[in-house]
Design a protein that fits this description.
Structural class: mainly alpha
Number of domains: 1
Number of strands: 0
Order of helices and strands: HHHHH
Radius of gyration: 16 Å
Distance between the termini: 51 Å
Helix content: over 70%
Strand content: under 5%
Shape: globular
Oligomer: single chain
């Protein structure tokens, strides 16, 4: 039996913004390291950003197994919220940005 919990839109938006912040940090670090960004690496940005944002949210857990368990759950929630907010407000996502950039560069 699954219990549904109502999550506030503010929490979802904060999660979206945390992920976007991590995407910017990753992108900046990557561009400082190399001038050329590999398209294969582009597809992995979102997963890494979600992992970092969720991990930052779980700062006070001492037990590694509990941390990993909660991290996995929170990552799924963050991924869901990320696409939910992007869809609701018609925001571009990492999947769409690569396509848009290819169109612009032609």
């Amino acid at each position: 039996m699954k219990i549904s919990v109502k999550i506030s839109p503010q929490k979802e938006i904060r999660a979206y913004l945390k992920i976007e912040k991590e995407l910017i940090i990753l992108k900046t670090a990557r561009q400082e390291k190399e001038n050329v960004v590999n398209d294969d690496y582009e597809s992995r940005f979102l997963g890494v950003a979600i992992e970092r944002a969720a991990g930052n949210n779980l700062g006070n857990i001492k037990d590694d197994s509990v941390f990993e368990e909660r991290l996995e759950i929170l990552q799924k929630e963050y991924l869901h919220w990320y696409y939910k907010i992007a869809y609701k407000y018609k925001l571009p996502t990492a999947r769409i940005l690569a396509f848009i950039m290819r169109l612009i560069s032609k």
